[in-house]
Design a protein that fits this description.
Layout (H helix, E strand, L loop, with lengths): L7 H17 L10 H20 L4 H27 L5 H25 L1
Length: 116
């Protein structure tokens, strides 16, 4: 069992969630139940799956939750690109968020590989 609060991937993905909440607060209000909700839920899923997986008794189970977290990261990336296409987020913020997300994804992938 791992202490999720000590994992850098959990800390970074939690910070990333805060950034997603801040940026989506600037989106059009009619998107409240659309892309805002989708982005926030997928972003929250990343650290949530890391935390849940850390409680599992086997590394194989933990690795599966990390795989789900990576899937959520790809979902967020897609939604950020769509938000950019729609003009809800500027290019600078899109690049910054995607770069942070890629860092989290790579770190999670490398950590996952150590568990298998």
């Amino acid at each position: 069992m791992h202490q999720f609060k000590e994992l850098l991937i959990w800390k970074k993905s939690r910070l990333f969630c805060s950034k997603i909440y801040s940026i989506t607060a600037t989106f059009p209000s009619e998107e409240k139940f659309g892309i805002i909700n989708q982005l926030r839920r997928a972003a929250v899923s990343i650290p949530s799956n890391i935390a849940e997986g850390s409680s599992r008794n086997s590394n194989k189970d933990f690795a599966r939750f990390l795989e789900i977290a990576i899937g959520s990261a790809y979902e967020v990336e897609t939604q950020l690109l769509i938000s950019s296409d729609l003009g809800f987020i500027n290019e600078k913020n899109t690049i910054e968020l995607i770069n942070l997300l890629e860092e989290i994804t790579k770190m999670t992938s490398r950590f996952r590989a150590t568990l298998l």
